[in-house]
Each structure stands twice: as C-alpha cells, then as structure tokens.
C-alpha cells in the first residue's frame, strides 16, 4: 500500500506540473501577441505621422503643384501609405480581439477546471489514506490482543498444573484466558471488516475515481493544446486576411508611378504660364553708309518707335506678368490660347533705333527678359483686386475672365433653381392655404429676382470683357509646345490665323458662337474608375469601380475632371479616382 501510494503521488505531481506548464505556455503566447499588436500600432502611428508630415498643407504651394502628374503621384503614394497604415491597425485590432482576449478568457476557464480536478484527486487520495490508517490501527490492535490472549492461556495452563495453586486461582486464570481470547476474536473480526472496506475503497480509487480524474485532466490539456494551435493559425490568418487590401495599396503606389507623364507636365506648365504676347521681331540692319533708310521688314513688329520707348512698353506690358506687383495666379488652368494680332500683308514697319548700336538694344531686351527666368521660382498665388483683370497678360486675363464667368453662371443657376422652387411652393400655398401663407414668400421671391438681375448684369459685363480680350479661344490650338514657348502662335503652323484675317471679325465671330445653341463637346479621352464615387455633391457624377467614362474636360488644377456617360449624363469626378487617357 505504501508503494502504491508513492506511485500515485508521483503521477499526480507529474500531471500537476505538466498541466501547469501548458497553462504557462498559453499565458506566454498571449503576452507575445500583445507585444506584436503594440508593434503594429506603433508602426501604423509612425506611418500616419510620416504621411501627415509630407502631405501638402491646404492652400500651400505644394498643394497647387499637384496639377503636375509627378506631384500628384507622390500625393497618391502618401494616400496609399495612409491606407496601408490603417490595415496595420486592423491587424493589431483583430489579433487583440481574436487571440489575446479570447485566449485570456479561455485560460481562466482552464485554470478553474484544472483546480477542480486536482482538488477531487486530492480528496480521493485523502479518503483512501484515512481508510488505510483505520485498517492499520485495527491490525495492530488485533495483533496486541492476540498476544495477550496467548499469554493468558499459557498462564491458566501453568496455574492448573501447579499443585500449590488453589482451585480458585485456577478458575480465575481460566476465566482471564477466556476473556482475552474473546477480545482477540473481536479484534480479528474488526480487522477483517476494515481490510475488506479498505480493499473495496482502494479498488474504487485506482480503477474508477483516479482514472476518471486523469481522463478529465487529459481532455482539458488536449483542448488547451487545440485552442492554442488555433491561436497559432489565427496569428497568420489575421495578417493574410488584409493582404488583398495591402496588395491594392501597393498596386496603387505602382499605378501612381505609371501615371506620371513627363510630357503632359511640361504642357501643363506651358499652358499655365504662357502670356499670349507675340515674340519680338528681328532687329533690322541699319546701313549708315547709304544714309537713313527706314525700310520696313516683314518680320518686325509694332509701329516706328525709338528703342527706349519700345523697351519701356515691353517693361510695362509684355513682361508685366513677372513684376512683383502682379504675380501670376495659379488657380486656373485651361487650354485657351490667344489669337495673334494680324499685321498688314507686307508686314509691319520695323522699329528704328536711330544711332543706338545693336548691342545696346540687345542688352536692353535682355534686361527685360531676365526676370522671367527666375520668376518660376517666385510665383505665388495672390488675390486679384482689379475687376477686369486688365493688369494680366492676354492669355491669363482670358483664363481669369472665363473662370469668373463660369462661377457667376453657376451662382445664377442656383438662384434660378431657387426661384423656380419658390414659385412652385407659392402655387402649393395658394391651392392649399392651410399649408402656408403665399404672401410670406414674397420677400424671398423679390430677393431672388434681385440676385438674378444682379448676376445677369455681372455676367454680361464679364462676357463683354471676354469678347474684348479675344473670346474663349476654343478654336485656337497650338501645333507645338516647348518650355521656351511664350504662348505665341507659330506663323507656319496649321492652327495659326493668317495675317490676312480681320482680327475684329475673328474675335466677334468666336464670341457670338459661344452664345448660340451649344453643341455636345467631343470627348477628349477616356477614363476608367479606380474606386467608387457617390457623386452626392452638386455638379458631380457618380461612378462605380471599373466603369469607363468619356473625358469632356481635363483637370484644370483643382483636382476635378469633367466626364460624360453614354446616356449623356455629365459631371465632375475626382481626378485621383480614375485612370485618364487623353486622345493624342
């Protein structure tokens, strides 16, 4: 029994240590995953701070430069990295919920279950030990009483054989021996009963109770191992679930690099900064050997003026764009161009420079051109106070006037819609007086009418200024673009207007065409939606990912592109939400 008890105790200790080691492993894995989630959260936080650090501030110079594809591509990369950081945060959140919290809760249940099973095993063992002690006490008592009975029997027999002993002594010794023998028999029976009880309880303990407890502990430990294995798998699956979205982020970064168009960036820069002035003509050779000869040159420009007077005009007009007082506004970007001022058939007369040497004239021209080189670094967006934008170069003035007309037209359309709505509401009130008083709408209707009248007046005013500036210029195209192009026409290009054309007739013909019934503009390219766009704002149009739309008007630098569906619906979409391919 002592040996069996030792073996049992040894097995219980082994199982106790093994199950405790398993629970410690679960707790260790939970701590490991927690530290991993902290790393992911810190990584995501650092990525977000990084993208915020390099993202352009609203209204800053960097934001205005996003009209160029290489700047926009970098902005797209920052947006994709921000989305990537969100996926890292999602990994940390899912790991915390599905692994850490779940395993911690399960670990508490296992600890309680293990404690219950070990307590039951300890109680069963203590009960068996108590029964064994009773058996051992009964056995020792039986042994002691049996020896005492043997001694009493021997003494009775010895007294009976002693001749000197009296009959009373003999009788007393026999009674004592009989009593001891009876007590010994009772102890024997009690020992046998305790032995039977212990054997039965021992059999129950080793063949029923302990195997059941060990089986439950085994089942508990196997369930722990299975749950822990699932946690191991979740560690990988949690990250694998967001891999498709992370892949899309990386694809977006690659797409941003693919969308960079160096040629288009050059064209955008040219269209943004071209002034519309003509290039200066060649300086005529002055032959002093034959006296004063004021012959005209076909390639010269302007009326006969002295060099200082001519250069003075250039300083005040032609190159005024780059003066500090009137920097170029960069808010508009439209492909309008300026028709050149027609010249007589034999060309304008050449300017006469009198006795001024040629080197002096070139030096003076160079002085006026020099500021244009550094002006690309110092352009800033400033507010324009001049109502008619007459301080701007021709091309820039037309752009600003056209933008102002578009803004007024949109505002006028809003007022017209409001007027129509108020009229309908007034009709409803007149038919159903209980819904409201029609007279209460009179102030609003009057105010709306006044606003419409004011906006129409402003629209007519700006349209007349635009006509004076050369119209919209939609029909004029340049055949070539280069960084040294000043926005003037190439006389030999097919898109240039011939010198024989009447300038005033061309301007007013162009201007009148704008107010005739507008035809549907031909698409200038196509675009494919990269993301879903609800188009809930006024002037926008909804689109679904993968939808192909026709491009009607390209991005003018404000981040919006005008598109059209096959059914004729038009509206604006974010340029970054689509891949745009323009017709060449």
Automatic annotation (TrEMBL):
Q: Name one Pfam family in it.
A: SH3_1
F-BAR domain: which residues?
1-265
Give a GO biological-process term: endocytosis
Q: Which residues form the SH3 domain?
A: 522-583
Residue ranges annotated as coiled coil are 107-176
Supply the Gene3D superfamilies for this chain: 6.10.140.470, Arfaptin homology (AH) domain/BAR domain, SH3 Domains
Is Iron-sulfur one of the keywords UniProt gives this record? no
- Please provide, in alphabetical order, the Gene Ontology terms of the cellular component aspect for this entry: cell cortex; cytoskeleton; lysosome; plasma membrane
Q: Which GO terms describe its molecular function?
A: lipid binding
Enumerate composition-biased segments (Polar residues).
Answer: 293-302, 477-495
> Where are the residues of the annotated region Disordered?
293-313, 327-358, 477-501
Query: By its UniProt entry, which InterPro entries does this protein fall under?
Result: AH/BAR_dom_sf, F_BAR_dom, FCH_dom, HR1_CIP4_FNBP1L, HR1_rho-bd, HR1_TOCA, SH3-like_dom_sf, SH3_domain
- Principal localization reads membrane
Which terms are listed as keywords in the entry? Cell membrane, Coiled coil, Cytoplasm, Cytoskeleton, Endocytosis, Lipid-binding, Lysosome, Membrane, SH3 domain
UniProt lists compositionally biased (Pro residues) regions at 337-351
UniProt-annotated location(s) = Cell membrane; Cytoplasm, Cell cortex; Cytoplasm, Cytoskeleton; Lysosome
Q: Where is the REM-1 domain?
A: 391-468
Would the keyword Membrane turn up in this protein's UniProt record?
yes
**What is the name of the protein in this document?**
Cdc42-interacting protein 4
The scientific name of the source species is Cyprinus carpio (Common carp)
Lineage from the top down? Eukaryota, Metazoa, Chordata, Craniata, Vertebrata
